[in-house]
Specification:
With about 60 residues, the protein is of the alpha+beta class. The protein is built from 2 helices and 2 strands; from the N terminus they run αβαβ. Helix 2 links the parallel strand 1 (about 20) and strand 2 (about 60-65). The chain is elongated, with a radius of gyration of 13 Å. It comes from Pristionchus mayeri.
């Protein structure tokens, strides 16, 4: 996910595109019983948040659904 996003940045800068990551409600505390799945989805949420803050300067939106 990180590597592909980094590779896409130069193209997205030119086209003012967006990155959309797929998350889940399981990233929230006490929602999912699967510990590892919850951790993975929480990481996606944090990655999305950090990428959004860094890439907005380049005109690239980053969201999760």
């Amino acid at each position: 996910m990180v590597a592909l996003s980094q590779l896409a940045v130069p193209h997205l800068e030119k086209t003012k595109g967006a990155i959309v990551n797929i998350s889940a409600i399981a990233s929230l505390p006490l929602v999912c019983q699967n510990f590892y799945y919850s951790i993975a989805k929480a990481a996606v949420d944090q990655l999305t948040c950090q990428m959004a803050g860094n890439l907005i300067k380049k005109g690239i939106r980053v969201n999760s659904v």
